[in-house]
Structures
1.
Amino acid sequence: MTLDQLRLFIAVAEREHVTAASRAMNVTQSAVSAAIAALEGRYGVKLFHRVGRGIRLTEAGRLFLPEARAVIAQATAAEHVLDDISGLKRGTLKAVASQTTAAYWLPPILVAFHRKYPQITVELAISNTEEAARKVREGEAELGIVEAIVDDPVLAQWPLGEDHLIIVQAEDRVSEPVGKDWLKAQPWVMREPGSGTRATLEHYLRSLDILPGELEISLVLPSNESVRTAIEAGAGVGALSSLVVAPALLAGTLHAASNVLETRFFYGLRHKERYRSPAADALLDMIERAGRAVKNQKV
């Protein structure tokens, strides 16, 4: 039994005429007759009385008609759902982002996305880069936005935006030039292993021939805010995103010792083989447009 057979059956039943039904459905009379014959032959029942040129529902046809209408109505409703999803009129997008992007970079973009697509619900989880990659790999999130390169062959990864780290401290001056000796002599407040912020800092240190194990680490904390607050309280120095420390620098509760002299990127993550939803594509398009606008402002 197919939906087309049901539609043609309903058309004949409502018009009690094969020719009128074929015209209404824009098919040939033979196609209508074949559909009815296929239903009758498959189930061994007669759906219509054929007397001369007349055609009337049998008792079986009369009982079957409301069921056929119900199936077609449900199929139409299902089609509308898919139309709405493809047209971004409804749906849920599950995404995961690392702390810096989720707290400081994404919110204005998500607000703009909600204004444009108010019927799309974005469920955003916050994890460090390593955990975000796991969620995308295992299908818990369709889209990830992270702060470091992820070495995973099943994930597609590409740059979405950029940022840089700033080494900050509570004191308003640095007693000596910021070099290898200074960096190795400071007590450090660090993010946890697996965070993009820590990975970027460690990459920078290695470029200076400093192994991460050579640093004096006083605290390892699980969020940007806890690192920032500890540094403000005098626990040591730390490297945080310019997005994270900008308000504290402006307020004078933190002071920049040095920039980490390399740009770091925010990366998009998607599973290479999973379905790409229109909602995720629309959000990525909005993110990329925002990135281009920022670059144009700098130029």
2.
Amino acid sequence: MKLMLVDGFNLLSRYYFATERRRALDPDVTLKGLLRKVDGWTNDFTHIAFFWDGPRETTHRYALFPDYKATRTGLPEPLFHDYVKLRAALTERGIFQSELAGYEADDLIGAVATAFPGESYMYSSDRDLHQLLSPNVFQIVPKKGEEMMMNREVFVATYGVRPEQFVDVKALQGDASDNIPGVRGIGPKTATILVQSYDTVETLYDIVRQEALQEAHQKFAKKLDGQEEVALLSKRLSLIDIHAPIETDWEAYRFGSHLF
């Protein structure tokens, strides 16, 4: 069995902004192009599911850090209309959709991908999903008119850490797009070096408290000092919740199963 897991807003936004200039000639150009993509998946995948973000204010991330994703703006009105049309069109095609208050689409995708008994393919440009990569979980990353297949091996070769360590790197470097603070002054290169050397943020700060950083890393001590709390918060904000309550009747995800 092969399951396509789609980050709904990520896909819709990419198509919306890619077709924005053509909307004056055809208001439905975004929807038409996106549905052609979806229909193409039915040739390669037995199961297809779309996931949507619940309200930001209901998530545990917002409770932990109210400024989480605070820099994001609301949906443009035409994009919201496309969202409503898309959800209706997916329902007509019998494609499973899920949205759950308290969770983001990434959480639902993670819970399904790690539980599904076949191969799971996540379709999204969101790098947060990289942390889920495994022998049975892959990510198709749309990029400048192309698609890249990301698996564990490609990830390790690209980033120099294991997929599950991606949250530790992000905890140190932060993420401006999600307004995750990270440790001030620690960028991607330094964050990667530290995670390669100490495995996790928790282990790193055990070493920092013992004043036992390797000699080559002593130069980072001042930046790390006093930042354990913000680093651990950033990790919690970055970590996908794979324990979100999900539908586990896998036939419900089979393409066309919701048609009556």
3.
Amino acid sequence: MASNVNPTVRRRRLGQELRRLRELKGMTAEEVAERLLVSQSKISRLENGRRSISQRDVRDLCGVYEVEDQRIVDSLMQMAKDSRQQGWWHAFGDIPYSVYIGLETDAESLRVYEPQIITGLLQTRAYAEAIIRGGSPEASEADNDKRVEVRLRRQGRITAETDPLRLWVVLDEASLHRVVGNKEVMREQLEHLIEMSQLPHITVQVLPFDVGAHAGINGQYSILEFADAADSSVVYIEGVTSDLYLEKPLDVQKYTVMYEHLRAQSLNVDQSRQRIERLAKEYAR
């Protein structure tokens, strides 16, 4: 599913390199912005990979940083060119979380905590349709259909025959009891969850009600990790109107420790599967 050139990852790597060059020069983002007569926020967005970057931007920044090695300039220019290509998700139009999809497409592993629903990569079509329509009651049918198709295509990362995404999911027990669609949809969903949890690269744990207060009490989040050492881990927190991406090592470490607590507080893999199987049988009645 992943293309050879992932524009999101290219932007991210390019931004990291531009930040490194700025810091080597001993300049602040504000100083660079003043030299180029642009806003400081533009420089920040270019460096964090959230904004498309042109070859002209790269040329201008290399000029400010006095980069003399033409090979470095050419390499950065090529990265800028690659970063403006389109990933498979762009064929579906304006996707609010396209940055996340780009990161997920290139990630080596993903750890997810979901307090309310079954995580998107493990949803059936019927469940995805019900959750998307219920969560976006004012959206058009066409827009909701598009979001369903994008969600199902993302699942190619965990069903790939080679190098599938390593997925670890902690589901709050509430997500198993919340009837999305109807009981038949839930039975099918939980049976699918059981089947997927048996794959060697997918781990599913259930955080039971009787744990009480826990490390994930503040809500859903995901931790993405990448094979390339140049790509730092990212914590992703989904929002209603905007999403949050945390990349600072201390932030990532804090959420990683929180996730370890969640895993420890959850039922083990066998107990979790038994809990899901029991609920699936109840939905079948």
